[in-house]
Amino acid sequence: MLIFFAFLSLVLAQRVAELTIARRNARWMTAQGAVEAGQAHYKYLVALHICFFAALMTEVLMLGRKPPQWWMAPAAAFVVAQWLRYWCMTSLGPFWNTRIFVLPGAKAVKRGPYRFFRHPNYLAVITELLCIPLLFGAWMTAAMVSVVNLYLLSVRIHVEEAALTEATDYAEVYGSSR
User: Fold this and answer.
1) pLDDT tens-digit profile of 9-67?
2) How far apart are CA 108 and CA 160, in angstroms?
3) CA distances from 23 to 5, 31, 133, 139, 168 (A)
4) Residue 76 belongs to domain with CATH number
5) pTM over 0.90
6) What letters, b where the CB count within 10 A reaches 16 and e where it falls short, cover 93-128?
7) Distant-in-sequence, close-in-space partners of 84: CB < 8 Å, separation ≥ 6
8) Which of 45, 47, 92, 97 is deepest in the core (most CB within 10 A)?
9) Could you read off the pLDDT of 135-158 as tens digits, one per residue?
10) Are strands 100-102 and 35-37 parallel, antiparallel or unpaired?
11) How many domains are there within the chain?
12) Which stretches are transmembrane (predicted)?
């Protein structure tokens, strides 16, 4: 149980640090003239992440879940997702955020993992929300949160791509198909 709480504390500390970076980047973006899109769905993403931690703790503590024998597979996937997340953050620099900020006239980022596909940060999030619960045997949390997350990301990606296409050279850089 000590490992579970230590790991959970590490992930929560990481999220707080990322929110701090996101706030700093949001201030910079708005100072440059950026506008926010997708405010309507953002609260649901926040709620999902809060419910994720609550469900994970509930399933592990109340249902007595234990790490499976194959725990190294989700652990390795989690490490890869972390690497991908920070590669995304580094590649986007001050444009990285948990919210959708669009700077009119900005050039679309096509470096780092964005050379290979459009939304690598969301792949990292999908992987984390699946692998963290599986690491501790919380398969119900992994399944439920993943389904809701995929739906919310489908909404978010649609809003994000529409906002980027309208205000930047996103369509020219990535093509018009979504």
Assistant:
1) 999 999 999 999 999 999 999 999 999 999 999 999 999 999 999 999 999 999 999 99
2) 12
3) 27, 12, 27, 33, 22
4) 1.20.120.1630
5) yes
6) ebbbbbbbbbbeebebbeebbbeeebbbbbbbbbbb
7) 113, 120, 121, 123, 124, 127
8) 97
9) 999 999 999 999 999 999 999 999
10) antiparallel
11) 1
12) 41-63, 122-152
d(CA 100, CA 74): 29
Residue with tokens 């590649």: 91
Look up tokens 């050279």; give the residue.
169
DSSP string, 97-153: -SSEEE-TTPPPP-SGGGGT-S-HHHHHHHHHHHHHHHHTT-HHHHHHHHHHHHHHH
**What token pair was written down for 30?**
């708005």
Sole residue written with tokens 């906002």: 163
How big is the chain by its Cα radius of gyration, in Å? 17
